[in-house]
Design goal:
The complex is a heterodimer of chains A (287) and B (274). Chain A is mainly α. Chain A has twelve helices and no strands. Chain A folds into two domains: 46 residues, no CATH class; 240 residues, MetI-like (MetI-like fold). In chain A, helix 5 crosses helix 7 and helix 9 packs antiparallel against helix 12. The longest helix of chain A is centred in the C-terminal third of the chain and has 34 residues. The two termini of chain A are 39 Å apart. Chain B starts with 6 loop residues before the first helix and ends in a 6-residue tail after the last helix. The chains are: A mainly alpha (287), B mainly alpha (274).
Chain lengths: 287, 274
């Protein structure tokens, strides 16, 4: 058997699944978002679904909300994760514990974290009870709305809880692979602690940090169950809006749901593009 | 980071460490307490009455929690087995060979790790309606392959890039059949990768929500769907019990494989998509 045939046969099952299900699903979604589905007699593609969502106020609020959730969660998680990694790269008693808790946290599904955040931060949750104990509030309603709130604070808290360990583990692996020699050199040449971090360590860990951020951003932009559980009813995050439209009794809303799904996919494609572009420029820069 | 740390730095480090430890376990605590609580109303910091009622209910035949547990285990095991069968050959092709279009193939197989499930699941749902796969366990297992297969393939590509096919050639030249060669030579060499990739795949499938909800149409009631239903219906005690049951496999897998995974910190990143 020639190598080419062998490679083809080895890859065939995986490609069937990925092309058939993943790209097939995307393609069908795209076609239906254009109202184009010859099998059921829709032979004239049009932009009605896109026109409908782009003239709807809720779409813009949902988009901004989802962007805010993803952007804020990613930035906060990155900063805290780098801080945690800096703390953890020196050996001390706490390191083993936190390392274990990081990995434990990685195995906990997002949904469980979301329910935990709900029980902690809702107006009758643990923190509200603590506030009542110390006489800071009299009724649950006095506690600030941190879940189901318009600023999506509960959703962001949940993502930060889950993503700090995710980014932290990746950044820590990068830091440990590099060692502290480069920073030692910078320090011995007179750089301050901050300078050796900003101009030596940060550029070195940046590629790992960027790839983790891209994954986190795309995930938080498209995840359904967390905003469905912790989010306000209006405006809803884009994936929640898409699901609602898809399961609407009015079947005419289905193409609109598909259009939203395609926009979510486009957003993640933009993320991949930014990542590849940066990675390529970096490779060129090194050469 | 260089030289002796002052007392202030040390104190700061221990304090941050303490805050981090508390923050990491904090959301799980009310969940655990609720599962043993009865009538835990505002403003009580701790429940007035402790009870095993929620656990009794969860373990009873009528609640459907155990049925849901077995169903979820079955779906995740099936998705894992299929991922192994499909991902091992694909990993071999990507890890051991250089060929034209390899970047494109890699990109295609890795794309589902970044593109959110809901973006593709709506389109798949329309096709599965025609195929009669919606609201069925088989349909759910099939869509779970979308997120699980990339991890399996990625882990196996890493294993095969450090794999020497000369051993297979030697076994063959000594008269072993292809099947025997695979069983006695290839499999033992790649088994660690299959285990790690398989555990990833299992946990990724275990944590799927929206794919199961859409394709299963709410009829294929896996643990996360049941958990969500109880969480939104305000039964905090039962939610707590199901939540504890739901995170158990992840913890078990972590404890069993801690050593193996600790050495592969980058691979652990795969857990982040749960």
């Amino acid at each position: 058997m020639s190598d080419r045939l062998k490679i083809f046969l080895l890859l065939l099952p995986a490609l069937l699944v990925i092309v058939g299900l993943f790209f097939g699903g995307l393609l069908i979604g795209l076609m239906r978002s254009f109202n184009y589905m010859p099998v059921i007699g829709l032979t004239e593609p049009n932009l009605q679904a896109y026109a409908a969502i782009f003239t709807e106020e809720e779409f813009y609020y949902s988009f901004l909300l989802s962007f805010h959730i993803s952007f804020t969660s990613t930035v906060i998680s990155c900063i805290l994760a780098v801080g945690a990694a800096l703390l953890l790269r020196r050996a001390f008693i706490g390191r083993a514990i936190i390392n274990f808790l990081f990995q434990l946290n990685l195995t906990v599904p997002h949904l469980v974290g979301a329910i935990g955040i709900l029980y902690l931060f809702s107006q009758s949750g643990s923190f509200a009870r603590l506030a009542a104990e110390f006489g800071m509030i009299a009724r649950p309603a006095d506690f600030p709305a941190l879940v189901f709130d318009p600023y999506a604070i509960g959703i962001i808290l949940q993502y930060v809880w889950k993503e700090v360990p995710f980014i932290g583990v990746i950044v820590l692996a990068n830091m440990q692979a590099m060692g502290e020699d480069y920073e030692s050199v910078a320090r011995s040449l007179g750089a301050s602690k901050w300078q050796s971090f900003r101009y030596v360590l940060l550029p070195l860990i940046f590629p790992g940090l960027l790839s983790a951020s891209v994954i986190v951003f795309a995930f938080t932009f498209g995840a359904y169950e967390i905003p469905a559980l912790l989010g306000a009813n209006y405006p809803a995050a884009l994936p929640v809006l898409a699901y609602r439209k898809y399961t609407d009794v009015d079947l005419a809303a289905r193409p609109e749901a598909m259009a939203l799904a395609i926009l979510i996919a486009v957003m993640s494609a933009v993320m991949i593009y930014i990542y590849i572009r940066y990675a390529r420029r970096r490779v060129r820069g090194v050469r | 980071m260089i030289g002796q740390d002052g007392l202030w730095t040390k104190t700061f480090r221990y304090l941050t460490c303490l805050v981090l430890v508390i923050w990491l376990v904090l959301p799980l605590i009310p969940l655990a307490i609720w599962s043993f609580a009865r009538g835990w109303f505002f403003p009580d910091i701790l429940p007035r009455f402790w009870t095993l009622d929620a656990w009794d209910y969860a373990m009873s035949d009528t609640s459907g929690v155990l049925d849901s547990l077995w169903l979820t285990i079955g779906i995740s095991l099936a998705a894992t087995a299929l991922s192994i069968l499909i991902g091992v050959p694909a990993g071999r092709a990507l890890g051991m060979y250089k060929f034209r279009g390899k970047e494109v193939v890699e990109m295609m197989i890795l794309a589902p790790m970044i593109v959110p499930g809901i973006a593709v699941a709506l389109g798949i749902h329309s096709v599965f309606i025609w195929l009669g796969l919606t609201n069925t366990v088989q349909g759910v297992i099939l869509v779970h392959l979308i997120p699980t297969l990339p991890y399996m393939t990625l882990v196996m590509a890493g294993i095969f890039s450090n794999y020497d096919p000369a051993f297979e050639a030697q076994a063959r030249s000594l008269g072993a059949s292809p099947l025997k060669t695979f069983w006695y030579v290839t499999l033992p060499a790649i088994l660690p990768g299959i285990i790690v990739g398989g555990l990833f795949a299992f946990l990724v499938s275990w944590s799927q929500y929206i794919l199961t909800l859409l394709i299963g149409g709410g009829r294929v009631l896996t643990l996360p769907l049941l958990l969500f239903n109880f969480a939104t219906s305000g039964r905090n005690d039962i939610t707590g019990a199901i939540g504890m049951i739901y995170i158990l496999p992840g913890i078990l897998i972590l404890l069993l494989t801690a050593k193996q995974l600790l050495g592969r910190s980058a691979a652990v990143g795969g857990f982040g998509r749960l």
